[in-house]
Batch of 2 targets.
Target 1
Amino acid sequence: MSERRSFITQLQVAPLTLVLFLFFVVPVALVVIVSFFRYQMLVGLVPDFTFKNYYDLLTNPTTWALYLSTLKFTLMVLVITLVLGFWLSYFLVFHVRNLVVAIGLFLLCTIPFWTSNIIRMISWRPILGREGLVNQGLQEVGLIDKPLDWLLFSDFSVVITYVHLFTLFMMVPIFNSMARIDKALLEAAIDAGATRWGVIWNVVLPLSKTGIALGALFVVTLVMGDFAVVKVMSGGLSGSATSGMFNDLQFLNYPRAAANAVILLIIVMLIATGIFRLIDVRKELVR
Amino acid sequence: MSSDRRPWTFFVLATLFTLFVIFLYGPMISILILSFQGPNGSLSFPLRDPSLMWFGEVFNPSRVGDVPGAFSRSFPLSIIVMLLTVLISVTAGFGFRRHFRGSTLIFYTAIASLIVPGLVLSIGVLVTARFLGVSANWYTTGLGAHLSWTLPFGLLIMFAVLGRLNPSYEEAAYDLGASKWQTVKEVVVPIVFPGMIAVALFGFTLSYDEFPRSWLTIGTKNTLPLEIWTMTTNVTSPSLYALGAITTGISFLVIGAALGSIYLIQRKRAGL
């Protein structure tokens, strides 16, 4: 009987395993393999075992500049989304008293997630552009004489767009962690003489740890893997780790693009393992 | 906390929340308004002589792109991804309720598939297709690339849903004389069904809007997000906004249908 059960279990998980194997494990493995191949004009991929692609990339100052720029964006977006995600969740969980209202407001924040990122990205143009709403408004009020140029196609607009697109990924896991906190715990802390800030710092924040870690994982990987936002919203002025890959792909230089992908993958996986060291995600999810 | 007077932080955070919602929806609303721009209108405010002309322009292939064609690939792709995501993640979710050999490995593979940069996966799937000697198409490589992204989401949702399905409920049903089929129909499905709709919503919308994983995997003919991506650089008329308004409208219809049906199910259940 138990053998039959375990066979059924295997069968239930088999389709998932198959898809993950064919469309994740094999492709990523092949990216690693191709990264050691040689690139030849017109021919494209030439099987080989060379470190040339890695050597080219790592000795090129542009690569370092691009990764540094990505890291800068990642840190800025991480801090902003963390602050926003924490306080917005705190508001919904501990300040909104009616559960239905809280769920309604939570859904209001999540709905944009199910719409197109590209559309949401370009929708900042009429707001931030030279003739955009912000510039028009500021000129009307008389705060500025001529339109601000740094609002659109700048680091500023890139960060704004990232925050707009990715805050949700931080907010949902934090909300999930906070919603599980027993409110009696907070009252006990206050009865024991803690201030309200003390409660937030010593009770709410530690108990939201899992959510914060998961949210950080999402935000870091999304920003580091992005190439659409940084390309469109910086107007080509800023690059990211993926910009190099993008260029190589346009010249069909798959080996170097693959080597770049492997470097990015290693960095992302290192960050992810660091986060998984801190928390046991699976246990937290099933709890 | 239990006192009736709101602390001052409530008002500060309520303001922050309101500003965040404006920040979230403001840009979307502004392109919705600007999609009604008149013939002399520009890409920014003010709105001059409101008209519907840019919506008509969306379907003019010589001026914009092949939007109907892109839609005719994107829509069936999202539907197939949605159905497969529900089917595969629900069965896998049930499988994961029992401990089995390799469960941790498969779980972490799914998580890794979720966080791998979309562009990296796109390259990988294309290279895989080359090695296998098949050409990239939306219904083969594109479909697989999308599933590698929607299935982990589906699995995580099923984990959350099935975490609430205590095995003792099913045992209780058996003990009370329910057949296996009755247990599934009367106990399991009602608890799991709203979660399945959520999985379907994720499956459809994530696929419908997916850009990086589609980029190299869907072959020579574009899906909608890629068509829009090309338009962001080529098209400088408000028809871009009109297309944005249309696809956002479709997304909202799907979201509304999903959330509405979850709400109806919950209400019906509460009424029983």
Target 2
Amino acid sequence: MTSRALIEVKNLSVLFPLYHGSSRSLKKMVVAAASGRLAQDQQQRVVVRALTDINVHLESGDRLGLVGSNGAGKTTLLRVLAGIYEPVLGSLRVRGSLNALLDPNLGMNMELTGRENILLRGLYNGLPRSALPRLEEDVAEFAELSDFLDLPVRIYSAGMVVRLGFALATAIKPQILLMDEWFLAGDAVFMEKARMRLEEMVRGADILVLSSHQNEIVRQWCSRVLWLDQGKVLADGPADEVLNRYTGSIPHHPADALV
Amino acid sequence: MSSAVTTIAPPKELHLRADMTIATRNRWAMADLADGMHLWRLAWALGWLDIRLRYRGSMLGPFWLTISTGVMVAALGVLYSTLFKIELKEYLPFLALSQVLWGFLAALVSEACGVFTDAEGVIRSVRMPFFVFSMRGLIRNAIVLGHNIVVIVVVFAIFRMWPHPGSLMALPGLLLWAIDALALTLLLGGFCARFRDIQPIVNSIMQIAFFMTPVIWKPNQLSASGIANLAFNPFYDLLEIVRGPILGSDIAVTTWIGACVYSVALCAISWAFFVRARGRIAFWV
């Protein structure tokens, strides 16, 4: 590793203007401009405050869990840390190689063969040509596709697609690992193996940021927890402390047990 | 258990602020271009992939493009050479070349609108230079052009028009096209992601431009009718700098100047837009 990994988020806010329907149209803007209401229109644009005034400082060794209900801003925060959404207010500094496991099927194409998908992923990650054979070998071995590797993904069984997607996503070792909770899907036998590989990766990463609804996983992997609610930080501290407060606050509906 | 994962992600450093100065934004936009070019192999692979997927399962694949262009040129050639009372031998090579080149331009402009919105899934799940998607659009259309060139070659061979050294002068023109295409995809790609009703506008502009530009008719037909002014049609200048040398006709210096002026203007507008909008595109797609 070249330098120590670092994530520093200062006073960060992200607002999503709602571009739905007519508010997005050029016509409305032209009409508004013609009638001298453009500025006003801009001010009155409906925005969603996805994240408000977030401050996070993470260094090598930190394992941060993000908890909160749906729509609390967990995934948005991960996207901000990954550099996808740039700060609307505040600043973000990230140092170190980064892998964000946000979309299980990132760049995966059903018409391509497993092997071609692996190579494509290598290209997406800007790997040098020399690293590709190793990547291919690793993914093929883990996903257990054997003869299917040279057939189009379209004819794979659902389980095989999950295995390939997982193997691809976890094939590249980062200093900073950002993880959304989708990876906990898949069949049981594969799960055990997947878990081992994932734990391996988590251990290897300098910084982990994990977003999950499964408090046990957070408790197991994270040393620190950030509790988000409606885009604001409700609590930030040692995992057990925050998780206890968090679980205490959730009403125990059967529906919640499912998520 | 020892780690099977030995591939290490390339390191990077990111420092983003909301209140960036124009100079900083400019630096980020330049970095986007540089990083994008670094990923040229990805852009190349994606461009080819687009073509493969478009023609998946078909036996002739992209050569359907060649066939349909060929049939189109043959039909239009016979019809218009009669209507315009021009000899087929003189008209058809002109038409084949014009039609193929215009097809490239028109598709490029039209597809420029979708370069970012089509890649929505990727843009929202990984930080990726936007320039990659611009290059992808250019490469995809260059591949189509490559297939259509067969039509030009066949028509030229039928009428015994062999390449001459002057044809090489088309190369600087093509280079200018490539630069313009990349600038245009950055501009229209971002603009159309923000305002979804730009795409139909662009399509109808291209439709009108097709008739207003000497693609199926010859520029000298217009001057014969007493109207000599094609100076304010950017498409004419740009088309002529590539078409002229291949047909062996002389290009006026003003045509080259026009093409360069339009290109510089396009690049400047596009850059100004991209510097401002780059950080917002992920919110728009």
